[in-house]
């Protein structure tokens, strides 16, 4: 991976509209990931609000949200949530992770970064999209009820995952 250590300016956002839709529905709308602890202005129930704005619940939940089953209004609503809430959170994570040096290689074409906001971001390099965000999520703390978890719990769990899954911290 040709990323410049410390720099994230050359990392593009999630490149595909379908992938943006899927990641927002799967992660931002997952109550257990508690994005409300890190995203200012996030509605209390973003999935419920999406349903109220035309989304069929089954098209925006589960492990494989369906772009193809969602109507145009739903697609646009979810993509707007990407632009308003999800993308700023993962961009902030990239920036703060780079400053703090919280990044590690997953394999030759991808790395993981953990931001101050506890967002675990995976960056990949591909021929089609160059260096880009492939995913961003909040690692749910083990042993803590989702309603009881604090922002610091999510940060610690994400940093633990970074140490377990990458070369972060080796040789220090």
Protein described:
The chain has 172 residues and is of the alpha+beta class. It has one domain. Helix 1 packs across helix 3. The model has no long low-confidence stretch (mean pLDDT 92).
Topology:
Elements: H1 17-28, H2 46-52, H3 72-100, E1 103-107, E2 110-114, E3 119-126, E4 130-138, H4 151-165
Antiparallel strand pairs: 1-2, 2-3, 3-4
Helix pairs in contact: 1-3
Index terms:
single chain, alpha+beta, 4-stranded antiparallel beta sheet
Question: What percentage of the residues does DSSP assign to strands (E)?
Answer: 15-25%
Rg calc: 16 Å
Q: Report the structural category.
A: alpha+beta
- Give the helix tally: 4
Average pLDDT figure:
92
What is this entry, summarized?
By secondary structure, the protein is α+β, with helices and mostly antiparallel strands. The chain contains 4 helices and 4 strands, in the order αααββββα. The protein has one domain.
